[in-house]
Design goal:
By secondary structure, the protein is α/β, with parallel strands linked by helices. It is built from 12 helices and 13 strands. Helix 2 runs parallel beside helix 10 and helix 7 crosses helix 8.
């Protein structure tokens, strides 16, 4: 009996020692004595990436150029990764729903080209709550919690358009007997449109202020052709068809403006600008209906985005890729940024830019154009 009691007592002491040891270990963990190298950063090791783009009806580029480039470049940068894709179809509400679905499906890095820069801030807030980094793609989301921003120098885009007008307005003013200038901007819900306008006015305000050119009509649009066409019709009516220059923020809207100018027999006589180097825009330039466009190499934008995704996946600081900063206007926070360089394109350099880069092929831009057009076709 004594032997039994002695043995039970010994086992009790052993059990007590083990319990105390475990408790001390637990306390050590609670006090942060773990190895800090085992802590993963948000998005590190992530292989499910959500990509949400803004719309399909305002520009050819989103589903036809950005989407395939991103769906190719991201898995190449992070082998074995899966990309969840959605296009918001021009709805901020739909974009929110799309991203929430992606998060439910396990997206641990988000790439978002916002339809509405302000509304999309809610996406960033929700993602941050779940520890998911957000890369703002092409358009800046108005949130100080962004991980990175990949785009072009958008003030420079507007300045390229304005500089082109400043360098080429003379013959159009002489031909039309007026210095009336119409400015048709993008959507005010798109931060890029505000930056384009800023750059444009940096170039043109000196000419407006000294009376060389006259700003007779300026409006934001929703980036669609029908609204741009309504605006140019209003401007033509207001000026009795006396217009020399039409700044138009992108090629799709420019094509609608040209349609309205044709009705008044002014197509090719008014300096019309554009952006995106769409096939229609390039063809309009080649046939003399549009003066210029701004070429943005979307393949480089997609690749830069993939590079940022790779840095996040590897647990690296995104500033190793996004070495510039953009001051987000609402929060005042500096967001790590990749800002690529846009290029002005007119008849003089289509071959050296659009064709040389393979952005479009000769067969694509010459489709349905007469042989010999612009000495290219």
């Amino acid at each position: 009996m004594k032997l039994f009691n002695h043995t039970s007592h010994r086992f009790s002491l052993t059990a007590l020692f083990l319990i105390v040891t475990l408790l001390l270990g637990a306390c050590g963990s609670a006090n942060g004595n773990t190895n800090p190298t085992t802590t993963k950063k948000p998005g590190q090791g992530c292989k499910t990436i959500g990509v949400s783009l803004p719309e399909t009806n305002t520009s050819y580029r989103w589903d036809n150029q950005d989407k395939p480039a991103l769906l190719k470049d991201i898995p190449s940068a992070v082998p074995g990764s899966k990309v969840l894709y959605a296009n918001a179809g021009g709805s901020a509400t739909q974009q929110q729903t799309d991203v929430e679905t992606m998060l439910t499906q396990g997206a641990c890095i988000l790439v978002v080209g916002p339809h509405d820069s302000k509304a999309a801030a809610a996406i960033v807030t929700e993602a941050k709550r779940k520890g998911v980094p957000v890369i703002s793609y092409d358009r800046l989301i108005n949130s100080g919690d962004l991980t990175a921003y990949v785009s072009f120098d958008n003030v420079a885009v507007g300045k390229l358009q304005g500089d082109y007008i400043a360098q080429h307005y003379q013959s159009y003013v002489t031909q039309n007997g007026t210095n009336n200038t119409v400015l048709i901007n993008g959507a005010q819900t798109d931060n890029n449109a505000i930056l384009f306008k800023q750059g444009l006015h940096e170039s043109l305000d000196p000419l407006f202020n000294n009376g060389t050119l006259k700003n007779v009509y300026e409006q934001f649009t929703d980036w669609t052709g029908p609204v741009a066409e309504t605006d140019i019709q209003a401007a033509l009516s207001q000026t009795n068809n006396k217009i020399a220059i039409a700044y138009v923020a992108n090629d799709d809207m420019a094509n609608s403006v040209i349609t309205a100018l044709k009705v008044k027999n002014l197509a090719g006589k008014v300096l019309v600008t554009g952006q995106d180097a769409s096939i229609t825009g390039i063809q309009n330039i080649m046939t003399g209906l549009q003066a210029m466009t701004v070429y943005k190499a979307i393949s480089k934008e997609a690749q830069s985005t993939a590079d940022v995704v790779k840095a996040i996946y590897n647990g690296q600081d995104v500033t190793t890729v996004a070495s510039q900063v953009t001051k987000e206007p609402v929060s005042g926070v500096n967001i790590p940024t990749v800002a690529l360089t846009p290029v002005a394109v007119d008849k003089s350099n289509i071959q050296q830019t659009i064709l040389a880069d393979g952005f479009w092929t000769k067969a694509q831009i010459c489709a349905n154009l007469p042989a010999g057009t612009d000495n290219i076709c």
